[in-house]
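Give me structure tokens for this 180-residue protein.
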Amino acid sequence: MPINSSKKYIFDNLSGVIISAGIFYSVNILVFVIASLIFKTGNLNYPFYLYKSLIGQTINEYIPTSRVMVPIIILQIFVGLFVINFVQLVSSIVRDKFSSLFISLVLLLGLNLSTTVIQPLQKLAMWLPTTYFNAINVVSGEISVQYHNAQVTFVSGVMTLIIASMVSYGLGMLVNKIKV
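Here you go.
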């Protein structure tokens, strides 16, 4: 029995998630093990610097690293899901692998880098999924202080990335149905 376009799109998306997650976590675990063998592991109570911006001034706060690890990992997972769905959407539109990769890289990295330079984009940063690519700086609050935008937080990152992933996935399904 032939697979219809919707099932193929879902299968491609799920396989992208599984393969990407497998590669990402395998590489991270390998790097962690090698670094631990060479330099030993650190202490989870090591202080982690948080940026807190209150009406024009930045307050310093240190918390144990263990308290920020879970939010960073969660944000990275949602970033990965967004990137996979976005690349899948671009591939559905373009249909050429090299062009899809090039367009995806230009759009994702271009928007990410341009936000750091273009002031008006910094005001909208909380709604741009590419803002949350650097999960460590989002969780620490550094990006919020750097952009003078207190709305760039872990919670806004999770919400933005979930919405952006759903929109990318839905548009990809729609484009896939129309093109067939």
